[in-house]
Design goal:
Strand order of the largest sheet: 5-6-7-9-8
Largest sheet: 5 strands, mixed, barrel
Number of helices: 18
Number of strands: 15
Radius of gyration: 46 Å
Shape: elongated
Length: 445
């Protein structure tokens, strides 16, 4: 069995990519379990596989002690010295205990281990291979289908085309070749599971990368995609080279490039528009082919009201609102489309004021409820009142000084001494109801 086993390990390593060392390590661990299962003892057992000879041997590891309490785990110092006088108490000694019929057990165990390792290795190889294809396109063959999934053969594994990933109205026959977008790859206990889609917006992106070299090399960038699979899609593109027309590049000569993608998606309509940083212009482009006259943005919201000619209203909205819906997804704006007549009537309504001038509506409501804030006095009015108050205060102060036999001129000319000045000011402050400093503070002058 030895040579055949070694050759089998080498074949597995070459064909399956399974390391020989990994298989031998797993085999030794499995043989320890097999020995325990068959001989009721393995707490101190080691199994060694000789790669050169292909032989499997079982060893019992025992500790050298002065007094043996358990012969299955311990060996006396005297017995150890019979093997080698260098042994000391505490050393570990390996005794071969390979059973005569262990070859049969080893062969059976080796078969199980190899089979299991092959299965695990193949799963890991497949998973590691296909995880690199996540978010990418692959071509496969329709293998079979049930009520839930269509199973696509990708070569080494079957991928599941989910119901959500199927294009409405699309039918498959066995052996049909289809392109699918790898949505996610999962490593489960049953092996790798691959879920693919044909309705995902990124499938459109990958198809254009395949068909348009300028997108693949980064000259033209796909900025946004809005898709209703099987019916219609919108795509916004931007050129990093001013000499390259982004839309024309994607359409191709006489529409050849985009037509290839439309054929792959069984007639799905395609609108390709130019991306711009100006949101108003982007919304106009997104509503193509309808003409847009005005775009009014709602304050503090990602929302707008778009005005189109009266005869373009149905074109802008689209069949079942599809054009407007896709434009909203493409631009990430909520879009309300109105004709010229509708917008004129809308401007005269309260809804318009509430939408575009909410602060004015709030003030009107407060005024009607009698809770409107008082109008602040103008600065000129405040200054006039302050001047008048100051004049009155000076007049009162002068009268009080006259009553005390003092004149304001004496104060201004410095004819009063410090004591007289202090007494005069104190009397004025006591007699006056409000001081000038208080007035200054009240009016914030």
């Amino acid at each position: 069995m030895g040579k055949e086993l070694i050759q089998a390990f080498e074949t597995l390593e070459n064909e399956k990519g399974i390391s020989k060392e990994v298989i031998i390590e797993a085999l030794e661990a499995a043989l320890v379990s097999a020995y325990k299962r068959n001989y009721k003892q393995a707490q101190n057992v080691e199994v060694h596989f000789d790669e050169k000879k292909g032989e499997i041997k079982v060893y019992a590891v025992k500790e050298v002690v002065d007094l043996v309490m358990d012969s299955t785990l311990e060996v006396s110092l005297e017995e150890a010295h019979e093997r080698n006088t260098a042994y000391e108490v505490g050393d570990k000694i390996r005794f071969e205990v390979t059973p005569k019929d262990f070859g049969r057990i080893a062969a059976q165990t080796a078969k199980q281990v190899v089979t299991q390792r092959i299965r695990e290795a193949e799963r890991n190889i497949i998973y590691n291979e296909f995880i690199d294809y996540e978010d990418d396109l692959l071509t496969g063959t329709v293998e079979r289908q049930d009520r839930r999934y269509v199973y696509i053969n990708l070569g080494k594994i079957e991928a599941a085309l989910t119901p959500e990933g199927q294009i409405p109205g699309e039918h498959f026959e066995s052996h049909d070749r289809v392109q699918v977008y790898v949505e996610r790859v999962e490593n489960t206990t049953k092996g790798p599971q691959i879920y693919v889609s044909r309705s995902h917006p990124n499938m459109l992106k990958r198809l254009f990368e395949q068909e348009v070299p300028e997108i693949y090399d980064g000259t033209v960038e796909i900025k946004a995609i809005a898709r209703e699979a099987g019916d219609r899609s919108k795509m916004a593109v931007y050129s990093h080279d001013p000499n390259v027309d982004a839309v024309g590049t994607c359409v191709g000569p006489r529409g050849s490039r985009v037509q290839t993608i439309v054929d792959e998606l069984h007639g799905e309509n395609m609108d390709i528009v130019e991306w711009t940083e100006d949101p108003a212009q982007l919304i106009k482009n997104a509503l193509n082919p309808a003409e847009v006259l005005e775009v009014h943005f709602v304050p503090n919201e990602r929302s707008c009201v778009v005005v189109v000619p009266n005869h373009h209203l149905s074109l802008a909205i689209g069949k079942r609102g599809q054009n407007a819906r896709l434009a909203a997804k493409l631009t990430n704006y909520k879009i309300d489309i109105k004709s010229e007549e509708e917008f004129d009537a809308f401007q005269a309504s309260e809804d318009y004021e509430a939408l575009f001038h909410p602060e004015m509506v709030e003030e009107e409501v407060l005024a009607e409820e009698g809770t409107a804030p008082a109008e602040p006095a103008e600065d000129d009015e405040l200054l006039a009142v302050a001047d008048e108050v100051e004049a009155i205060e000076e007049e009162v102060a002068a009268e009080d000084l006259d009553d005390q036999g003092l004149r304001a001129d004496d104060i201004e000319e410095g004819n009063l001494g410090p004591d007289q000045m202090e007494d005069a000011v104190a009397d004025i402050e006591n007699d006056s109801e409000t001081s000038y400093d208080d007035l200054q503070e009240d009016f914030e002058i």
